[in-house]
Amino acid sequence: MPTCEDGFFDYLRAIDCSDVEVYAISEGSVVFPKVPLMRIEGPVAVVQLLETPFVNLVNYASLVTTNAARHRFVAGKEKSLLEFGLRRAQGPDGGISASRYCYMGGFDATSNVAAGRLFGIPLRGTHSHAFVSSFMSLDEIVDKTLQSYDGSSTCEDFVSLVQTWLNRIKRTNSLRGAFGETNQSELAAFTSYALALPNNFLALVDTYDVMSSGVPNFCAVALALNEFGYKATGIRLDSGDLAYLSIEARKFFGALEKEFAIPEFGKTIITASNDLNEETIDALNKQGHEMDSFGIGTYLVTCYSQAALGCVFKLVEINNQPRMKLSEDVTKVSIPCKKRCYRLYGREGYPLVDIMTGANEPTPKVGERILCRHPFNESKRAYVVPQHVEELLKCYWPGDSGVKREELPTLKNTRDRCMQHLEHMRPDHMRRLNPTPYKVSVSAKLYDFIHFLWLNEAPVGELQ
Amino acid sequence: MPTCEDGFFDYLRAIDCSDVEVYAISEGSVVFPKVPLMRIEGPVAVVQLLETPFVNLVNYASLVTTNAARHRFVAGKEKSLLEFGLRRAQGPDGGISASRYCYMGGFDATSNVAAGRLFGIPLRGTHSHAFVSSFMSLDEIVDKTLQSYDGSSTCEDFVSLVQTWLNRIKRTNSLRGAFGETNQSELAAFTSYALALPNNFLALVDTYDVMSSGVPNFCAVALALNEFGYKATGIRLDSGDLAYLSIEARKFFGALEKEFAIPEFGKTIITASNDLNEETIDALNKQGHEMDSFGIGTYLVTCYSQAALGCVFKLVEINNQPRMKLSEDVTKVSIPCKKRCYRLYGREGYPLVDIMTGANEPTPKVGERILCRHPFNESKRAYVVPQHVEELLKCYWPGDSGVKREELPTLKNTRDRCMQHLEHMRPDHMRRLNPTPYKVSVSAKLYDFIHFLWLNEAPVGELQ
Q: In degrees rounded to 5, what are phi and psi of residue A55?
């Protein structure tokens, strides 16, 4: 027996969203619980079909952007943050979304080439451990020539030059005895990589041993490149005691800067990776280190410390009748009615409070006192005189309504908005431990209406 | 300055996988750490391009299948398990992958309609809370007619019939005083839903109050349907004390079965949802409940208790030279060489041990004693006489090699394999607390070779 009539499929075929309007808080905005991220208006059956796609698209995107912003917050503004998560992300699309939203949340670049191409995110990465171990010796390098950076000269045997530099480093006074024979397959891999990408020589130095092989080999190649006008990018540490190794590597670079009078060589970039997360970065910062850049994968893109965000979709009004979902758990009670949402800013430029009003209430005005009430707690109320009022929900899909549609910003602009929003939050709202909760309120009129409904609609036994 | 030559793009354009061979353990198999899930052979540059896609595709798929199997294990074989995760999954593709691999791991159905269509997974779900609250009263129902199941008669006013049944239920001796006025918008929603889908009436009963509204309203509609030959599917509980509510609902159904002599009505299906996971299901089982079916979302699809799996891609051999990644952490040491992998079964039909050998070693033979050694621990070794030998890595992409390619099974067959594999594991390997580790070994020859390499290749200071 068929489970539905053919007419239903005809109906589905003919559906469009011309009767639907979608309002949303602009992507990249800082948002708070209870304030709707989107308001969708339209025929109930069509809007119900949008529920799952919208909730799916909003939940993970918001979660991973927040996670990226938290990593940025703990790493500080000066560090370079690279998203390295593709191989651990939850499916291919999870990986693409992760790269996009981590960039939005404040990361500088991704190793996900597809995301770079799709969204214009800067790309950054190193070679793999397998690249290093695929070499056996320097004899494997066939083409040994390197044109100088400015094109004025050619190094005919870059391999020999690298070996010469390795010996010079070994004989420097300040590094005497610091290392013995370095691993030759690693040296071959670095040399080969530098010949292919002399402008972007970033070497993974932990395949064998960081201080007795990886760093000396890197420096030999970097100094050979330097002779022909190229500046090596840096090293990546991917195992071991990252703080200690970064400090030792920094000393090594500093000694060579001094010894060979190569300006800035001591500042060669040190990137670290290997299961980093908010906590490990915080711990590294506390103990002191010399890393300039962090490559973060698993914990970032899978949002390991909280793998899901629980945004939901609620019916708040139908045929001009308000609807309200009651629950014994007050955090699950929905705020009824088609609403408008505003952010009110204070004298210092910080946002003070978000306020929701009925759709037909007047807009809060700059310089005019307005009562902001906690939606459910009678005693929590405050008068606010905003210095600036921002309407949060903007029309991104007007359907046939004729409402003006907001332009969709570029990813770069959204990222800038996100950075700017985070910057303008009052610091006590942003601290990691015991932050001051940001206030979310309703207008006096909406408060009264909620509580009128509550008293009149709650079935017996519902609220205890 | 360009970062690479045009020739590189020409090279990429011309690449194909005709020189690549991919061997893999069949999807749906139970696998253990150290045994390679795939063996990829081919030109190193091409194979390196496959690294990230393969690792991305294998990691999450294996993780969520395992998570589904763990949920099945704790729920038991008799319960129906429904995957309800799309809205919380990590991106749209995360959701599709989740539905596919949860089915493979032992779930019975999904609420993800797209996954149902793509992969033929059975679909199951209920209406939403919003559907219930979108109704105001029974007056909204325009078409009140219902044809009987066998087509022999028509109910002209199904709405009145439902109201009649609600009154009958209220007056039954055993339920006298159990409930008062039920919520009319809920009753309207249930009635409307039953008129549209009389063969699949599964009602979400917790929008208002489960025992004083949802369950009586459901029963009124179910008994009205019963009069015209339809069997109601059941109820879903999505909040509150699930164990208690399921027991109370079961009693209610039982009382009506007796009162109105409706066979099986007491066995009406009770489905529960609301942030369920392995632990909550285990706790529910321990305290006792009357649920037949669990709908599981967030914790299942995001693998909340461990959001990432750390499979990696290692170079083990190049130009017939073995390669081995050493590490201070012995669990990160890779096993070198192109290998073959076998599962050895004992007399009772259980797998005893997995063994890896060099690619050119003879295959272990049924009835012949073979020495299985722990790859790194000299003292751990055992002789095994297998009753059955299964080669694990099979060719799924032969390239131009002429090797016979395995057929790709259907999802249903893969699911059957997975169920059968899990069934045939020795129970002590499968218990949730302190399971006996399953043994993974290498041949004596491979053991000697690993340790020869280790001694000869480890740079000074590498192994401590």
A: -65, -40
Interface test with A, best of B5, B51, B90 (most A CBs within 10 A): B90
Chain A contact for B129 (CB, 8 A cutoff): yes
Q: Which of A2, A65, A23 is nearest to A392 (CA)?
A: A23
Q: Provide ipTM, 2 decimals.
A: 0.91
Question: Which chain A residues are Cβ-neighbours of B52 within 8 angstroms?
Answer: 86-87
A264 residue type, one letter: E
d(CA B298, CA A198): 47
Asked if pLDDT for residue A326 goes beyond 80, the answer is: no
| Structural contact between residues A356 and A340, judged by C-beta atoms closer than 8 angstroms | yes
Q: Do B208 and A183 touch (CB under 8 A)?
A: no
Mapped onto helix, strand or coil, the DSSP state of residue A23 is strand
User: Are the beta carbons of B212 and A134 separated by less than 8 Å?
Assistant: no
| Whole-number pLDDT of residue A457 | 62
Gap between the Cα atoms of B337 and B236, Å rounded: 54
pLDDT at A126: 86
**Which pairing describes strands B234-237 and B269-272: parallel, antiparallel, or unpaired?**
parallel
Q: Which residues of B427-450 are buried (b: 16+ CB within 10 A; e: fewer)?
A: eeebeeeeeeebbbbbbeebbebb
What pLDDT score was predicted for residue A455? 82
Q: Which residues from A are below 8 Å from B53, CB to CB?
A: 92
Q: Which of A216, A165, A164, A156 is nearest to A186 (CA)?
A: A216
What is the rounded distance in angstroms from the CA atom of residue B389 to the CA atom of residue B444?
17
Q: Can you tell me the distance from the alpha carbon of A416 to that of A106, in angstroms, rounded to the nearest whole number?
A: 9
Any chain A CB within 8 A of the CB of B136? Answer: yes
Chain B interface mutation, best of A1, A90, A200, highest count of B Cβ atoms under 10 Å = A90
Q: What is the mean pLDDT of chain B?
A: 93
Which domains, from first to last, does chain A contain? 6-37+313-457 (3.20.140.10), 66-301 (3.20.20.70)
User: Which pLDDT does position B126 carry in this prediction?
Assistant: 86
Q: Which residues of A touch B98 (CB under 8 A)?
A: 90-91
Instruction: Return the beta strands (E) in B242-397 as ranges.
Output: 269-272, 293-296, 317-318, 321-322, 339-345, 351-358, 370-373, 381-384, 388-391, 393-397
A462 pLDDT band (50/70/90 cuts)?
very low
Half-sphere exposure (Cβ direction) of B9: Cα atoms closer than 13 Å: 5
Q: Could B136 and A321 be called an inter-chain contact, meaning their C-beta atoms sit closer than 8 Å?
A: yes
CB contact under 8 Å between A94 and B93, yes or no, is: yes
Distance separating alpha carbons of residues A19 and A45, to the nearest angstrom: 11
For range B368-374, the mean pLDDT? 97
CB contact under 8 A, B325 and A129: yes
Query: How many percent of chain B have pLDDT more than 70?
Result: 97
Cα separation, B334 vs B325, in Å, equals 5
pLDDT digit string, tens, across residues A432-444: 889 999 999 999 9
Residue type, B37: L
Between positions 275 and 334 of B, the ones with CB within 8 A of A are 298, 302-304, 307-310, 313-315, 318-319, 321, 323, 325-329, 332
pLDDT tens string B300-342: 999 999 999 999 999 999 999 998 877 767 777 889 999 999 9
Rounded distance between C-alpha atoms, residue B440 and residue B35, angstroms? 7
Average pLDDT value for residue range A160-180: 93
Beta carbons of B106 and B313 less than 8 angstroms apart: no
Option in A52, A239, A325 nearest B87 (CB) = A52
